[in-house]
Amino acid sequence: MSIASHSPRRGNALWAALRRNRLSWLGLALFAIIVFAAVFAPWIAPYDPLQQNILHRLQPPSADYLLGTDTYGRDVLSRLIHGARVSLVVGFVAILIAMIVGSAIGILSGFIGGAFDRIVMSVLDVMLSFPTLLLGLMIAAMLGASFQNLIIAIAITEMAPFARVARAPTISLKQRDFIEAGRAMGFSDSRLMGRHILPNMASEVVVVGSMWMASAIRTEAALSFIGLGVPPPTATWGGMIREGFDNILDSWWLAVFPSLAILLTVLALNILGDALRDAIDPKTRVE
Q1: CA-CA distance, 158 to 135, in Å (whole number)?
Q2: How many other β-carbons are positioned within 10 Å of the β-carbon of residue 234?
Q3: The domain containing residue 142 runs over which residues?
Q4: Among residues 91, 90, 59, which one has the least CA distance to residue 75?
Q5: Residue 20 CB: number of other CB atoms within 10 A?
Q6: What is the tens place of the pLDDT at every residue in 18-38?
Q7: How far apart are CA 240 and CA 64, in angstroms?
Q8: In this predicted model, what pLDDT tens digit does every residue of 129-164 receive, in sequence order?
Q9: Contact at 8 Å (CB) between 18 and 25?
């Protein structure tokens, strides 16, 4: 018999953490605005993000173009709003894949133990020895620049931390009495891992996921900046920064506004991750 779920209690803890840390409300509001803009981009954006108007190229922020125009006369605000879709989808899907695959590897490694565990941990140590951006760059360069390959590259780079986080509680949980009772009742290893160990460590993985999504968005922007992300003319924040890099002194708005969008998104996710950690981890709670 597994440990009972405490989802109402955890919900109360999360609410209490949000009330204690007022900064978390800022993160929640920022992230909600960004998600809203991404979901309703076709209706919110004032112009078509791909529409070119050479006569209005490199226009500074004005009443007609609130954030100015780029070198092709495209509206920066419209491209910024549509770029949020790419960043959020890539970040969420890549982290979801990394969370599922990495957690499965970590649980399996911790549960089986022995030589299998040592081999898996050695492979993960090699992956963790590479900086995230460098590993993502190598994988993206091998796969080629596309939306799907970008997600795969980021998912692989973020897989090792989830495996590490899932492995540690698995080693502790498999020694608990309810796991031994399950073995005595004839439960299979897959049932013990999937129905008894996974639910008791899922919250820790979710907290890590909320924080590493910010890392995934940064990696997506960096890969797009160097040309290994979503190919143009699709609007991406990293691609917009790259387009404005050559004109940074004369047309500052081209790089500054997408940089601010990345900064605010990463900040919001980190603040929300801290709130989740405070709610779930009893060691960090302040009564």
Answers
A1: 10
A2: 17
A3: 74-270
A4: 59
A5: 15
A6: 566 667 778 888 889 999 999
A7: 20
A8: 888 888 888 888 888 878 888 899 899 888 888 888
A9: yes
164 inside domain: yes
> How is residue 246 written in tokens?
């050559």
User: Is residue 141 in some structural domain?
Assistant: yes
Beta bridge mates, 75: 69
Is the peptide bond prior to 233 cis by the omega test (within 30 degrees of 0)?
Answer: yes
pLDDT > 70? residue 5: no
238 phi and psi angles, rounded to 5 deg: -65, -40
DSSP 40: T
The span from the CA of 101 to the CA of 98, in Å, is 5
Give the dihedral sign, CA 99/101/102/108. Answer: positive
Whole-number Å distance between alpha carbons of 20 and 3: 28
Whether 136 contacts 225, CB under 8 Å = no
Distance CA 111, CA 48 (A): 52
Q: Taking Cα atoms as reference points, which of 131, 218, 209 lies closest to residue 163?
A: 209
For tokens 């910024």, what's the residue? 80
Domain count, the chain: 1
For residues 44 and 81, the answer to whether their CB atoms sit within 8 Å is: yes
Contact in structure between 210 and 273 (CB atoms under 8 Å): yes
Using the structure block, give the residue that is written with the tokens 């590993």. 135
Whether 284 shows a pLDDT value over 70: the answer reads: no
**Residue 236: which CATH number?**
1.10.3720.10
Closest CA to 123 of 172, 99, 153, 156: 156
Cα(96)–Cα(155) distance, integer angstroms: 8
Q: Residue with structure tokens 């990293």?
A: 238
Helix (H, G, I), strand (E, B) or coil at 241: helix
Task: DSSP for 135-177, please give it.
Answer: HHHHHHHHH-SSHHHHHHHHHHHTHHHHHHHHHHHHHHHTTSH
* Residue 173, token pair as written in the block: 């949980």
